[in-house]
Amino acid sequence: MFTLDDILQGNAGNARVVSSSPLDPQLAFRSAHHDSRQIEPGDLFVAIKGARVDGHRFTATAAQNGALGVLCSTEIPDLPSAFFQIVVPDVVEALHATARARVRRQPSTIYIGITGSNGKTSTKEAVAAVLDRLAPTLKTLASYNTEIGYPLTLLRLEPQHRFAVLEMGAQWVGELAWLCTIAAPDWSIITNVGTSHLEYFGSQERIALAKSELVQALKPEGLAILNYDDPRVRAMQEKSQAPILSYGTAEDALVRATAIAGDPLRGHSFTLHYLDQQITIQLHIPGEHGVTIALAAAAAGIAAGMPLVEIRDALEGLTAYKRRGEIKPGPNGSTLIDDSYNANRQSILAIAQAMHTAQSEPDCQRWAILGDILELGDYSHEEHRLTGTALVPLVDRIVAIGAEARFYVEGALAAGMPAEHAHYFAASLDDTAALEAAKQAAATLLKAQVKQHDLVLLKASLGVGMDTLLQMLQS
């Protein structure tokens, strides 16, 4: 919730209100959205001019859906008389300024920034689930972690929120430092350093540099919660002026997991250790990376002073987040693992490892259905090929869909996968019809060859749209 006064104070001298009647500065908005389809009564519509779409064109729709007003850069004619406009030179900058003003009004809230190459959203969900057992907690909607999503999340703050769990993404060095000028974290959680967005960063070293900005933004009284098992994240402790709370499976991690056991697809059990305390936890989220996610959330709970039994209860209530390791019915009675929200090499191999070690029938075949990994630039061929090579000990069959996906198959064949076990369906991601036809061809193959006890993994970058393939497989 935020007020008209937050907008006016944040944009002092740069905001002009157009209204048919006087407005109360304490007029409160429930939230703000830049998509008119998400508007509900009591919201503010944020009209952003993008490269392809101008949000100003959808202001009338936002008004019909119940928005009280619009933040815009040009005055819009023919709107309802009760609907008001706040005209500013730059809508995105005004959005940032409004979020800053809102955050300044709530200094008692603990702001928790989460970044990393993999697992940001699942970690955000887990941390929020733990902390919400202690006190009301705001969390980022979906994966709203950019220059637009981050301030929109902050504008949903309510006075009762003691914690705000904020996912923060980056595609260039300096972006996280810049996001921290809107709201700097009190605690920073770093999940890992992988190969996401190599096209923009150029190397894993630069990715590590970018992620470390969230640690460097901390004040001395803050807290850095670092994945001790990732050497690049562990090294970030040298850049923090705040205390360190490490988590992982290594013996030196302060929040540690031992005795990891159980079914990796449906959730490991492990013993959680902190100082002289320990407790056994049974997870219902997949993979050893699920244990890592749980440890990060446990560390946040410990930092908040929660007893381990409360942390355990919260973690045991977690289930796989949407399209992140969800177990679903597959073709011909098989089991499908929907991990299709996004992908890089590390996340593909992590979920494939979980599938490889999962309990299964003797005649089980393990299928990896893979679409392109995006935003790799000049590293794309190599990353896809390395992924295919590394998958050979973990899966029995690969079905690759897209343009760059052919390099999965190249890597797998070079590593010894039989040619009849590797299938490639070519399609440019820019040609929607061709891409959907390739998915349909893949679905036809799978429906013909997948058997009852097989495990089928669905994984790709979000832009490939593997959700349509899932629909084909389940129809």
Number of helix segments? 16
Quaternary structure classification: single chain
Major sheet attributes: 9 strands, mixed
Question: How many beta strands in the DSSP annotation?
Answer: 22
- Rg, nearest Å: 24 Å
| Spatial strand sequence of the major β-sheet | 9-10-8-11-12-13-14-15-16
Outline? globular
Q: N- to C-terminal separation? A: 42 Å
What's the pLDDT, averaged over the residues? 95
Unreliable spans are: none
Sheet-strand content, in percent, reads 15-25%
Structure write-up:
The strands form 4 sheets. The protein has a 9-stranded mixed sheet, sandwiched between helices. It has a 6-stranded mixed sheet with strand order 17-18-22-19-20-21, with helices on both faces. Helix content is 33%, strand content 21%. The chain has helices at residues 4-10, 59-64, 91-104, 120-131, 149-154, 175-179, 198-201, 204-216, 231-234, 288-303, 308-316, 345-357, 380-391, 406-414, 432-449, 466-474, and strands at 2-3, 16-18, 28-29, 32-33, 44-46, 69-72, 84-87, 110-115, 137-139, 163-167, 187-190, 223-227, 244-248, 255-263, 267-274, 277-282, 326-329, 335-338, 366-371, 397-402, 422-426, 455-459. The mean pLDDT is 95. It has 16 helices and 22 strands. By secondary structure, the chain is α/β, with parallel strands linked by helices. β9, α5 (149-154) and β10 (163-167) form a beta-alpha-beta unit. α12 runs parallel beside α13.
